[in-house]
TrEMBL record:
<dbReference type="GO" id="GO:0003978">
    <property type="term" value="F:UDP-glucose 4-epimerase activity"/>
</dbReference>
<dbReference type="InterPro" id="IPR036291">
    <property type="entry name" value="NAD(P)-bd_dom_sf"/>
</dbReference>
<dbReference type="InterPro" id="IPR001509">
    <property type="entry name" value="Epimerase_deHydtase"/>
</dbReference>
<comment type="similarity">
    <text>Belongs to the NAD(P)-dependent epimerase/dehydratase family.</text>
</comment>
<comment type="subunit">
    <text>Homodimer.</text>
</comment>
<dbReference type="Pfam" id="PF01370">
    <property type="entry name" value="Epimerase"/>
</dbReference>
<protein>
    <recommendedName>
        <fullName>UDP-glucose 4-epimerase</fullName>
        <ecNumber>5.1.3.2</ecNumber>
    </recommendedName>
</protein>
<comment type="pathway">
    <text>Carbohydrate metabolism; galactose metabolism.</text>
</comment>
<feature type="domain" description="NAD-dependent epimerase/dehydratase">
    <location>
        <begin position="5"/>
        <end position="253"/>
    </location>
</feature>
<keyword id="KW-0413">Isomerase</keyword>
<keyword id="KW-0119">Carbohydrate metabolism</keyword>
<keyword id="KW-0520">NAD</keyword>
<dbReference type="InterPro" id="IPR005886">
    <property type="entry name" value="UDP_G4E"/>
</dbReference>
């Protein structure tokens, strides 16, 4: 058994892939999850501790039981549209949950923390490539709650020596190339899985949110990154901290923007089937374009994305979509 790493949200989409990458790198992932959106069946590479971040005692109990070397914090509410309808829940759950976790981590004497942040902290920046130097100006409650947690980490870092790596994700896509894990949300709101459900006839059509954005074809541009590449960066980030390097923030994306229409085209190529599409209105809170500059992760962490070509990501998601998925 390798050294323990507490993985909040370890039963979720990205957290479960992170557990696999950690196990492969010789660590023991402890999945801490309330199973509100995660799946017990996705916890395959270490134990599941069923707890809730809004209950500080359950967080402290998990840290005391497993004495992890580091904490990786994935658990959060993460839907832009929902955060615009119900900002209070986003601020309460994400920010209180992180505060409990960060303070309990410091109290337990753990000094290594890796945080899942988001490109939504940058807001809408007129199509500029978003680097770590870009000013953060979130336009939705989801992005706002994540930026608040980044600030919290900087303060706990300065005052309590909590060394941390902040990763800002762009649009995470794809599934475990070996087919052991994949994306499964209930309800699903993300473009690629919804599109593949429409291809399979599990829903009547995909609604494209808005076609009047200031982009080449009028639909939003997003930067898609493969979940396996993303979690590889987390193992590099963990080793960065274990090597005693300073706190740092890294954007994680492929550096290429694809419009919603281009994603649909790529899916036609991969699945050889049509995507039934309905043109709909804009979704509140959506930025026109979110494209990453990820040079820092490439140069400093030595991150080497391997599967983040759009067709590869859709292909892996398509393979997963044809499997039975996790049972409730
Ligand atoms: N999108 C869409 N129809 C859908 C879901 C998403 O047109 O049913 C668009 C959405 O407006 C955004 C992009 O697809 O421009 C990616 O959205 P998703 O929810 O997957 O990720 P987000 O960018 O919100 O993190």
């Amino acid at each position: 058994m390798g050294q323990n790493i507490l993985v909040t949200g370890g039963a979720g989409y990205i957290g479960s892939h992170a557990c696999k990458a950690l196990a492969r790198a010789g660590f023991t992932p402890i999945a801490f999850d309330n199973l509100s959106t995660g799946w017990a069946g996705a916890v395959k590479y270490g134990p599941l501790f069923q707890g809730d971040l809004t209950d500080r005692a359950s967080v402290a109990a998990a840290l005391a039981e497993y004495q992890p070397l580091a904490v990786m914090h994935f658990a959060a509410l993460s839907l832009v549209g929902e955060s615009m309808r119900d900002p209070e829940t986003y601020w309460r759950v994400n920010v209180n949950g992180a505060l409990n976790l960060i303070s309990a981590t410091v109290a337990a004497g753990i000094r290594n923390f890796i945080f899942s942040s988001t490109c939504a902290t940058y807001g809408d920046q007129d199509g500029v490539v978003l680097t770590e130097a870009t000013r953060q100006a979130p336009i939705n409650a989801y992005g706002g709650s994540k930026r608040a947690i980044e600030d919290m980490l900087r303060d706990f870092g300065a005052s309590h020596g909590l060394n941390h790596v902040i990763f800002r994700y762009f649009n995470v896509a794809g599934a475990d190339p070996e087919g052991e894990l994949g994306e499964q949300h209930q309800p699903e709101t993300h473009l690629i899985p919804l599109m593949l459900e429409a291809v399979q006839g599990k829903r009547p059509a995909l609604t494209v949110f808005g076609d009047d954005y200031p982009t080449p074809d009028g639909t939003c541009l997003r930067d898609y990154v493969h979940v396996s590449d993303l979690v590889d960066a987390h193992v590099l980030g963990l080793n960065w901290l274990l090597d005693g390097r300073p706190s740092r923030d890294f954007n994680l994306g492929s550096g290429k923007g694809f419009s919603v229409r281009e994603v649909i085209e790529a899916s036609r190529f991969v699945t050889n089937r049509d995507v039934p599409v309905i043109q709909g209105a804009r979704r509140p809170g959506d930025a026109a374009a979110l494209v990453s500059g990820s040079e820092r992760a490439l140069e400093e962490l030595g991150w080497q994305p391997k599967r983040s070509e759009l067709r590869q990501m859709i292909g892996d998601a398509w393979a997963w979509a044809q499997k039975p998925g996790y049972q409730a």
